[in-house]
Amino acid sequence: MTYFPLKENFRYTYKFTSSDFEGEATVYIDILKTEKIDETVKASARMTFILRDTHTTDFEIVNDGKWVYSTNGIVTGGRKEFPVPPVEGGKWVESPDSCRIQTLSDTKETAAGKFENCMKIVTLIADGDGGAAMRWYAPETGLVYEDYHAEDKQCELELVGYGPLETTEEKK
Fold it and tell me: Model-level pTM?
C-alpha cells in the first residue's frame, strides 16, 4: 500500500490556515516529473502558495525504499515523512522531534472526501515540550490532513482536491 504516491503531472490542492497570517491560503502541490533509478523514485514538485499574493517554491519528494522524505513542505521545511514500509507503532527521531505511526487504520474526512485506512503519524515537537502535530496519509492518495500545534505556531492543512494536473494544451 502506498501512502504517498508520486504520480507525474498530478496536483494536490490544500486549504491552509496558520497563526502566521490572517485568512485562508490555497496551496497547490504539483508533482511535475518523476524519475526512477533502481529502487529510488524522485519527484520534482512545485508548491504554489496563494494568499494575498503568490509564491512558488520548487522542491523534491523522494521514496528511496527506506523512507519517503521531502526537501520542503507547507507546514514545516523538509522532513522524513515516514519509513517504507510503514509499520504501526514505528518510531523515529528528527531531533528535537520524535515521531510515531499511531495507526494504519484511521478514518479522516476532508473537503476532498472520506478516507479510510489512513496512516496517522503523531509528532512530539521538542519531544513534547514544544507541542504536537498529527498528520494523516490516505492509501493511494497521500497527505490529506495535518494539524500542527507548537508553542509559537498553529496550523491546519486540509486536502480539498486532487487529480491530474492540467497542461496548457488541455486548457485550450
Answer: 0.94
